[in-house]
Design a protein that fits this description.
six-stranded mixed beta sheet, globular, eight-stranded antiparallel beta sheet, 7 helices, alpha+beta, 30% strand
């Protein structure tokens, strides 16, 4: 991780990415798997599918157990897998590299991986958030098994780097419940120290907007950031599970200095613009005595 000082760039506004996009990273050039093998693995994870395109340039699959309702038609969502191309890690700047908290091998990955396969969902924005999140993670699990040589995944929407082996070893295990996979794998919980203050910090999330849900923000001091990160992950899961029931001014359970949830003390939720780029609407959680900045 970088120890450099970064400046706020409030001119950098979020470019809403309604398509879920992930880069599979490889040390060596990877080929699109043979058609029968691809069909079998995708069916294992996605159920009823139609592999409508498969050649050396990539593949396309319809997830027919899901239906997207549009004004003029009801259609299944699709996934696209592009052929392998070169990966240029120099395009990931120090600011983004500083937030790879979930990958302790980020330096090795970015130096050794020279190739990428980009995979996306299509037409999936019409699905309910939780259904889409689980479908995308089903697809993701199929990908890491279809490409065993994949070293890591770079989630374009959340700018998060995650080891492929950590996903492989959790497939089908109760340690990572089905509904929690999107938060664990695809949402980036970021952490910043604020220079020129007496220990002020910010924790926020990136990646919820793909599901048309709000990210979170905590501006605080005098409490272990690991506890705040845990609160953020739990709150993000609550928002995803319940299609964001949080309204302006709503209270939410706090945590105490030991990191335990405390229903006797509530924190206030407000919809605000983010303090850290990219600028986007977030739920800012006012942490009472731990709150920093002007409220």
């Amino acid at each position: 991780m970088s120890n450099k000082t970064f400046k706020q760039d409030l001119s950098n506004k979020e470019d809403p990415k309604i398509i879920f996009m992930v880069k599979l990273l490889f040390k060596e050039h990877a080929e699109i798997p043979e058609k029968n093998r691809m069909e079998k693995k995708l069916k294992e994870h996605l159920g009823n599918i139609d592999l409508f395109w498969h050649d050396e340039k990539g593949a396309g699959v319809s997830a027919k157990d899901h239906i997207c309702h549009f004004k003029d038609a009801d259609v299944p969502p699709q996934f696209m897998i592009a052929a392998c191309t070169e990966f240029d890690s120099s395009k990931i700047d120090d600011f983004h590299r500083s937030q790879f908290w979930d990958c302790n091998e980020s330096d090795r990955i970015l130096s050794e991986c020279k190739y990428q396969i980009i995979a996306t969902d299509m037409l999936a924005a019409a699905l309910e958030p939780l259904e889409r999140a689980n479908m995308d993670m089903d697809f993701l699990e199929a990908l890491v098994e279809l490409f065993p040589e994949c070293e890591a995944l770079y989630f374009i929407n959340s700018e998060k780097l995650y080891l492929a082996d950590e996903i492989r070893m959790n497939i089908g295990k109760d340690d990572v419940p089905r509904n929690s996979r999107y938060i664990k794998y695809a949402v980036n919980v970021r952490f910043f120290n604020i220079e020129g203050t007496e220990g002020d910090m910010i924790v926020d999330t990136m990646g919820m907007s793909t599901l048309f849900l709000p990210d979170l923000q905590y501006h605080y001091h005098d409490i272990d950031p690991n506890h705040v990160v845990y609160h953020a992950k739990c709150t993000a899961s609550y928002i995803l599970d319940n299609n964001n029931p949080i309204k302006e001014g709503d209270p939410i359970d706090s945590i105490n200095r030991d990191g335990n949830f405390d229903q006797k003390v509530m924190w206030k939720c407000s919809y605000e613009s983010s303090l850290i780029q990219p600028v986007r609407e977030v739920i800012d959680i006012c942490m009472n005595e731990y709150a920093a900045g002007q409220r």
